[in-house]
Amino acid sequence: MKQINNLKPHQRLLSGGRLPFQLSFWGQMGFILIFALVLFGPIMNLMIWTVTEVWYFPNALPSQWGFKYWQQVFNPYSDVSGSLITSLIIALLTVVVCLLVSVPAGYALSKHSMPWRVFWMLLFLIPQAFPNLTVYMNIARLFYEFNLNGTLFGVVIVHSVHGLMFSVWISVAAFSSTDPMLERASRNLGAGPIYTFFHIVLPQAAPGLIASSIFVFLESLDEFTGTFFVGAPDISTLPLLLYTASMEGNYQIASITALILLVPSIFFMLVIHKFMSPEVLSKLGK
Amino acid sequence: MGVKTSHYYWLVAPAALMVAIFFLYPLAFSLYSAVSAESGQFTLAHLEKIFELYSTDILFTLIIVLSSVVILAVLSISIAALITLSPFRSVVTLLGFLYRLPLFIPFIVTAQMMRTFLAKNGLMNNAFIASGLMTPMDTVSFLGWSGIIITFVWKQLAFTTLLISGAMAALDESQIRAARNLGASRVRILINIILPQVAPTIGVSLVLSTVTMMSVLSVPLMIGTGTPTMISADMAFRVNSYGDYSVANALGLVSYVLCAGLAWFYLRQSLEDKGVRS
C-alpha cells in the first residue's frame, strides 16, 4: 500500500489530472521563489539601510556605503546604548515578576484537584482576547494618579501582565509533565512540602520554565504600545527609540536599532526550537 | 499530598490579582468611560461624537482588518495545504522553513522594514525599475492603507500558517490516503476532507489575528501616513494631544465590537456547521 502511494505521484497527473507532474513542480517552486522574495525583500532593505550613508531618489542603491552610523550607535554615550540597557533591565525584571507569580500559579493549576481550574486558565487568556490598546491607555491614566507613569516599575507591571499568559500556560504544562510519584516518594521519606517543591518538582519543570522566561523576555523586549502610553517620554526602550528615529526620518539609526532587536529574537528562536523539540519534551517526564 | 485544595487559591492569587487589577479593571473602566458623562450619568454623547468625527476612520479600519483577514486566510490555507499535500519533499522543507521566518520578528521592526521597503524609493520599486517593469516616474508609494494590509499579512502569516498547518498535520492521515486511492484530486481532498476538519483552527487563528491587528499601534503610526487612518492611531492621538479619554475609550469600544463581531461570526458559523452535522 505504502509503495503504491509513493509511486503514484510519478505516474499520475496532479490536481485532477490537469497539470502534468513536471509543470506542477515548477509551479510550486515558482510560488516558493515569489514567497521568498516577498519575505526577504523587506529584510534586505533593512540591512541595506544599516550600512547606508547617502541614498537619494531615484538611485536604486545607496550612493555611499559605510559604517558611520554604527559608530554613532555604539558610542557609549548614544541614546541607543542607554535604551538598550533600559530595555534589558525592564525585560529581566519582567521575567522575574512573571516567574514569581506564575510558578506558584502554574504549580497549583497543574493539579487537577484545583477547584475551578478551567476558569482560572481562561482568566489568564483574557489579555490575549481583547485588543489591549484601550487597556494600556486606561492603565496609563490609572498610573498617572499614583505617579507610576514614566517609572521603571510601571513599565515592568504592564509588560508582566502582557507576558503572564505565556508564563502561566507554559508553567502549567511544565508542572503537568513532572512525575507525581517522585513528589509523593519525597514526602513519604519525610521531606517537607517546601523542600520537596524546590528539590524534586522544580528541577523537573525547569526546562519549561526557562522556555516561558524566554518568551516573556522577548515579548518585553519588543513591546511598544504599553511602553508608549505608560513609559514615554521618561523611559526610552529600544522600540520607542526605533519609533522616534524612524518618525524623524533617521532611517539608519532606526534600521540599526531594528537589527539589534532582531538578534535576540533569532537567537532565542533557535534555543526555543531546541527546548521544544519532541525528543526533549518526551524526555521531560522521565 | 498534604496540601489542601484551599491552599491552591493562595498560590494562584498573586497572578490572578495582577490580571484583575492591571487588565480587567482598566478594561471595565474603558467600557464605563465610553458611555458615561463626567458626572457619571449614562450618555451616548461620546459615541455620537466619534461617529461624527471618525466614521471614515472606522470604515477604513473595518476594510483594512477584513481585507487582511481574507488575504491571510487564502494565503495561509494555500501554504499549509502545500506543506500537507505537496508530493515534493523539497517544496515541503523549503516552505516549512520560510513561512516561520517572521514569527519572532517584532511588529515594530516589521513596520520599520516596510516603511523603507514600500516607500517610493524603496527596494520594491527599485527592483521593479531594475527589471524594466517600471520607470522611476511611475513608482508610487505604498505607505497608506495598502501598506498597512501588506505589513499585517507579512507578519501574521507565520502565526496563522503555523496553527493551520499544525491542525492539518494532526489530521488522520488514513482519510487522505483513502481519498487519494479512490482517485480524488489534491484540490478536492483539500476542500472536501481537510478544510471542514481544520475550520475551527482557521477561525481561531483569524480571530486572534484580528485582535492583534487592532492592538498594534506601531504599524498604523509608521505605515499609515495622513488621513484616513486606523482608529488605533486616532485613540493614541486623542489621548496624547487632548487628554480626551472618553472619546478615545468610545473608539476603543468600537474596536472591541469589531473583534467581537468577527468572533461572533466565527462562533455562529461553527455552531451552524455542528447543527448540520448532527
Describe the protein.
The complex is a heterodimer of chains A (286) and B (278). Chain A has helices at residues 2-11, 21-50, 68-74, 79-109, 117-123, 126-129, 132-145, 152-176, 180-188, 193-222, 225-230, 238-247, 251-275, 278-284; strands spanning 52-54, 64-65. Chain A has 286 residues and is mainly α. Chain A is globular and about 75 Å long. The longest helix of chain B is centred in the N-terminal third of the chain and has 41 residues, at 45-85. Chain B has 11 helices and no strands. In chain B, 77% of the residues lie in helices and 0% in strands.
Radius of gyration of chain A: 25 Å
State the end-to-end CA separation of chain B: 44 Å
The profile of the biggest β sheet of chain B is:
none
Q: Helical region count of chain A?
A: 14
Order of helices and strands of chain B: HHHHHHHHHHH
The poorly predicted ranges of chain B are: none
Averaged pLDDT of chain B, please?
84
Shape of chain B: globular
Outline of chain A, from the CA principal axes?
A: globular
Radius of gyration of chain B: 23 Å
What distance separates the N and C termini of chain A? 36 Å
Strand content of chain A: under 5%
- Report the portion of residues of chain B in β strands: under 5%
Strand count, sense and barrel status of the largest sheet of chain A are: 2 strands, antiparallel
Summing up helix and strand content along with how strands pair, one would put the structural category of chain B as mainly alpha
Largest interface: A-B, 98 and 90 residues
| Order of strands, widest sheet of chain A | 1-2
Give a short synopsis of this structure.
The complex is a heterodimer of chains A (286) and B (278). Chain A is mainly α and 286 residues long. Chain A has helices at 2-11, 21-50, 68-74, 79-109, 117-123, 126-129, 132-145, 152-176, 180-188, 193-222, 225-230, 238-247, 251-275, 278-284; strands at residues 52-54, 64-65.
